[in-house]
Fold these 2 entries.
Entry 1:
Amino acid sequence: MWEIFFTKKARADLLSLEKEIVKRIFSKLEKTKHDPESVFVRLVGSKYCKLRVGDYRVIAFLNKEEKLVEIRRVGHRRNIYRENP
């Protein structure tokens, strides 16, 4: 099973969202713990991957050696790709 780690920026992103959205994101992340590589989609030209949760995206780095999902950013799809992870 993979471990999930949130960066400081990702934690701040989560705090800015509504509680219901945060619950949906955590629920989806829990489901990905067994095989995140099958759920996360690699971003073109980047080492990061994305996870769709409705209109929100979770940007992460999948560390296969340590079986660690490092959540870098969380936000609405309209803004998340403009900002650096």
Entry 2:
Amino acid sequence: MTSTAVAILWIYIVLLLAGGLVGFLKAGSKASLIASGISAVPLILVALAILPPLVAHIGLGLLVVVFIKRYMKTRKFMPSGMLVALSAVTDVALLYLHFASRTA
């Protein structure tokens, strides 16, 4: 994984954990805090090169599905719609960097 891809992944991880913390602080949602922590663990392991990058793509894809379901239920852009977009953009960026580094 390129250093740029790792940096993008760390930014996503921080935003994911911050979102869980905000959900807990604003709405008292322990589920948000726990879910963000559990979701961040495999991504952290990928960023540390302990797990292969494929794990990040699978994790981000699953998060996109989860956030789409939440968005369809609530019809509110914040936070579900934003997280769909952020997760998808992060995954596309990581895929682009992966394939760009293979052809260089």
